[in-house]
Amino acid sequence: MVSAMSSRDPSISPPEGRDENRVDDRSTSATHPAQALDAGLYIVATPIGNLRDITLRAIDTLRAADEILAEDTRVARRLLEAHNIRSKVTPYHDHNGAKRRPEILNKLSNGAAIALISDAGTPLVSDPGWKLSREALEAGHSVTPLPGASALLAALVASGLASDKFMFCGFLPPKSGARRKAALDLKSVPGTLIFYESGPRLADCLSDLAETLGGAREAAVSRELTKLFEETRRGSLADLASHYEEAGYPKGEIVVLVGPPLKTIASDEDIEAALSEALKSHSVKQAAADVSARFNLPKRDMYQKALALKNG
User: Fold this and answer.
1) Which residues have a Cβ under 8 Å from the Cβ of 293 and sit 6 or more positions away?
2) Please, which residues bridge with residue 231 across strands?
3) Alpha-carbon distances of 279 from 22, 213, 285, 299, rounded to whole Å
4) Strand order in the sheet with 166-171
5) Of 42, 164, 272, 294, whose CB is crowded by the most CB atoms within 10 A?
6) Which residues of the chain fall below pLDDT 50?
7) Distance of alpha carbon 301 from alpha carbon 312, whole angstroms
8) Running DSSP on this structure, what letter comes out for residue 121?
9) Which residues lie closer than 8 Å to 204 by C-beta, 6 or more apart?
């Protein structure tokens, strides 16, 4: 069973003349004096959707910075203009990073205070900023984090899944075979797994995760977090895979979460019956994989049992 919840009713529009991302100038006045910053690199988290989700410290730092490095300056300027931030903005991304890093390190050496932001959320999480941060540290410069919005943490706390232990896994490989192999390596991780995924690949990704990790594992899919059509669907991996296969792919930024391995206690009779049934239509290898995923048992052990049944 799949359940969905949105934090806002999409049928209800904001009051006339009101923009949900409009910033109250009284709290972020351009006349608020910017405090001078010490030289160094400042890693600044920015909103993942709603422009209000930025800290006062982040606003002060961005106003006082000598330069702001952004993945996409067009995206950055929308945020900066909303908060009356006039600092110089320049591009820093995967394509120009190698060329720009020596120049940026030189500016840091000359006493500059430089802020790094991503298009959304906390920099260095699935974006190119980590190379700059590492080289700045190696060169002896200070690197200061300014915490804030993060899609993976927002999705985790909304998922209802275990949050005492979790592992962020980034994007899985786009091809099914490589994706299943990567998922198999994560099967026994004793915590919630968190992935980023694109809409067009979501159904196939969920299907591969269900096949590899076990269709009964609890899971959740969050999209458009903090935005008007924010939604989190919860259910088993199998149910979620089926839902998105039928409904088509959703739009927006997507986070997939998979709960910890199920603690299933199966009798030898149950395992043998499941293997015998699987062997009617599958090879020994596939039957072992299916039963392994179903009962969360080692695939090698299931293979040996399946082989014995096949030859017996």
Assistant:
1) 210, 211, 212, 213, 214, 215
2) 223
3) 60, 20, 9, 15
4) 3-5, 231-236, 218-223, 254-258, 192-197, 166-171
5) 42
6) 6-20, 22, 24-31
7) 16
8) B
9) 176
